[in-house]
Amino acid sequence: MASLGKTVTNVDDHVVVQVCDEETMEEIVSERFSTLKRVDPLGEDAKWFEVHTKKTVIDHKLDTAFGAFVYQYAKLRLLEAYYDYLDFYWERRDYQLMYIDTVSAVAWRNAKLYVRSDDVDGL
Length: 123
Hints:
This protein has helices at residues 22-31, 64-89; strands spanning 15-21, 36-42, 48-54, 95-100, 105-109.
């Protein structure tokens, strides 16, 4: 299911990354100044550079309608789990939902902490 989330990737932000020396970096900067995003020196001596430029041609090959369906369906299943399980078995005053995602949910429940003596050293 996690691989289906790749269908809603924003391909407009993809970049071309080139590693080059100082001369080549200066050529790229002068030729592609309009598409230049950033230049990062590699290492302390700065003899090599990492040049990030925007892509000139962007191919939208992803099925974004299918990706939107997957996310909406995942949200529906989360709400079903919340209302069918947590609300049904626990009182609302006894817990607080802290975090919920497509693969996990974290809830804090007001309950006594029971620790078995063989689980903790020194008890």
